[in-house]
Amino acid sequence: KLRNNMIKEGIEYSTTITVEGEHTALSVGSGDMQVLATPALIAFMENVAMLTVRDLLSDEVTTVGGMIEVKHLKASPIGAEVVVKATLEKVDGIKLQFKLEAFQGEKLIAEGAHLRFIVNRQEFMNRVLKTE
Predict the structure, then answer these.
(1) Residue 60, φ and ψ in degrees, nearest 5
(2) CB 110 within 8 A of CB 101
(3) Cα 90–72–50 angle (5° rounding)?
């Protein structure tokens, strides 16, 4: 499942995104302003957590989100560059607990926690698609 058991507490990953029109509250329907939408920010944060461990897993397994809690502290306009960072804080078997942060420049614009689970891709999809 794991490559060299490299999934260790403390590993981190970050990426920079540029806020586009499609990421705004007006565009996604979560508000009516031309600022980074909380749902878009959450998607970026969840994605960066997934990317933190993706290359440490074999192709048969992946991670899926189970819980996310985010405080969106400051608004970001179209064109802003936002750095989204995930830090793996705790590993408990298949449960991975991440600390999430987002910055615009030096300013913390969001923070949160995210729980992901390591799953076998095929078994997971078989359960999802199973008809009762």
Answers:
(1) -75, -15
(2) yes
(3) 40
